[in-house]
Amino acid sequence: MKRLALGALLLSLLAGCATTTELEETRGRLEDTRRQLDQVNRQASSRLSEVETKLANEKLLAMISELESLKAEQARLRGELEVLNYNLQGTQKRQNDLYADLDTRLGKLESGASAPSAPPAGADGGAPAATPPAAAPASSDYDKAIALLRNRDFPRATEALKRYIDQNPGTVEAVDAMYWLGVAHAAQRQYDAAIDIHRRFVERNPNHPKAPDALRNIANCQRDLGQVDVAKATLRRLIKLYPKSAAAAKAKEQLAQM
């Protein structure tokens, strides 16, 4: 019995020793695993940091590129704005020149219309034979249309001039009304209509006193439409056809500036 008990005790001690060894080995393996995990975590953290840094750099580069694009767009818009301001100033100056020219021409028209004419003498050279007739209604309508033009009421002047031309074809005033109709369209920047009317005016009335001015108006409209070369050709044609006219002198000045 004593021997059996001693053997059991030895076996128990041996079993205890074996368990302790296994525990130590397990602990060692766990420690190795923990170190490997720590290394993996450090590598992952380092990789994550690199990725974050790369993403941050890419984002920064994208922001810089976008900023540069915005700066370029701002510069482009500023340039376009300067061009628009320059064109607007030029348009306003040409509009003012048109108004001044219009006032001058209408003033001359008024002077010619209001100048007193000598009354017709009788058979004995004394008192006039008869009282001059009153102005016809058609002439009154023409004067009203010109008054609208003079007051720069261009839309109503356009309607009045068209109506007068339609109702009084073939009259001297209708021919003049056609010229002023082109001027009214040009004043409203309706350049295509103005060019068409002035061109027909010149073709039908090449010897009319306003024919040179009509050609110059055509050139101005073409210039404002951006057709500079065509406008130059029109001005040269004006100078060739009407070299002694005041419009030709102005055309030469314009050509020198274009």
The second-level CATH architecture of the largest domain is Alpha Horseshoe
How many H/I helices?
A: 8
If you compute it from the alpha carbons, what radius of gyration comes out, rounded to the nearest whole angstrom? 49 Å
Strand percentage: under 5%
Mean pLDDT figure: 78
Main β-sheet, in a few words? none
Secondary-structure class? mainly alpha
Q: Categorize the overall geometry.
A: rod-shaped
Helical content stands at over 70%
CATH class of the largest domain: Mainly Alpha
- The total tally of domains equals 2
**CATH-derived topology of the largest domain:** Serine Threonine Protein Phosphatase 5, Tetratricopeptide repeat
In short:
The chain is an all-alpha fold. Helices cover about 80% and strands about 0% of the residues. It has helices at about 1-115, 135-150, 155-165, 170-185, 190-205, 210-225, 230-240, 245-255.
Task: Write up what this structure looks like.
With 258 residues, the chain is mainly α. The protein has two domains: 22-85; 87-106 and 137-257, Serine Threonine Protein Phosphatase 5, Tetratricopeptide repeat (Alpha Horseshoe), CATH 1.25.40.10. It contains eight helices and no strands. It has helices at residues 2-114, 137-150, 154-167, 172-187, 191-204, 211-224, 228-241, 246-257. Mean pLDDT is 78; it is low at 112-136.
